[in-house]
Design a protein that fits this description.
single chain, 229 residues, alpha/beta, TIM Barrel, 8-stranded mixed beta sheet
Length: 229
């Protein structure tokens, strides 16, 4: 299995853990605000394979607590569960980032106990999902199912939205609040422009806007926080 990025140390990607972040290429979305667009199109050469990654993790035992699998979209790769099994056998805690479009694989992974924490994106309100995901059309039924799987399962998780001023507004979060009512945890992440973002003209919300969106979500979700402010 090819690994297309490795951040050897992070204190941010896995809440409460000293971790590394593993980037798996390929995605079924084209979000205009994506920070990792090089993993979506015109994918660069791999930085290592799974054997080399596991060798790295063996040497970091006692220094790292966890591993974060991200992308791209890790659940598009059929070998991701195999990699997760190997990482878990080494004793690491494992966090999975996903866009919530592979409910079957997510269910299997949680059923096997391969993930200790799942962070799942909620891109926008249902009527703006395609626009925010950079697609002509998007059926949210898979996202519905993934929300249900997380809310009914025993794995720790967060739902999260990267807030972009040009894509989100008060109506967005009123719909999300209804859609995700009763979720354990929801995180708002403020968009940050970087050289790796493919599209220009996008900007971060104001602090006042983020506070409003947090208040709206807090009407139906107990634990709502703002990350990156």
């Amino acid at each position: 299995m090819q690994i297309h990025g490795l951040q050897k140390l992070t204190l941010l990607d896995y809440p409460g853990k000293v971790a590394c972040t593993v980037f798996i290429a390929g995605c079924n979305m084209r979000c205009p605000f994506c920070h990792n667009f090089e993993l979506v199109e015109n994918i660069p050469p791999a930085v290592c394979d799974d054997t080399e990654l596991l060798s790295f993790l063996e040497k970091r035992k006692g220094m790292l607590d966890g591993v974060c699998l991200t992308g791209g979209e890790p659940l598009l790769n059929p070998r991701t569960p195999e990699l997760m099994r190997a990482v878990k056998r080494m004793g690491y805690s494992l966090k999975l980032d996903t866009n919530g479009t592979s409910p079957g694989m997510l269910s299997d992974i949680l059923g096997e106990g391969l993930a200790d924490y799942v962070a799942m994106d909620i891109k926008n309100s249902r009527d703006r999902y395609a626009l925010t995901a950079g697609l002509d059309f998007f059926d949210t039924s898979a996202v519905d199912e993934c929300i249900r799987i997380l809310m009914e399962g025993g794995c720790d998780y967060e739902l999260r939205t990267t807030v972009v001023r040009e894509l989100h507004d008060e109506d967005s979060f009123r719909d999300i609040a209804s859609w995700c009512a009763g979720a354990k945890r929801f995180v708002l992440q403020s968009f940050t422009d970087r050289d790796t973002v493919r599209y220009s003209g996008l900007s971060a919300p104001t602090d006042e806007e983020l506070s409003l969106y947090k208040a709206i979500l807090s009407e139906t979700i107990e634990d709502v926080s703002i990350r990156g402010r």
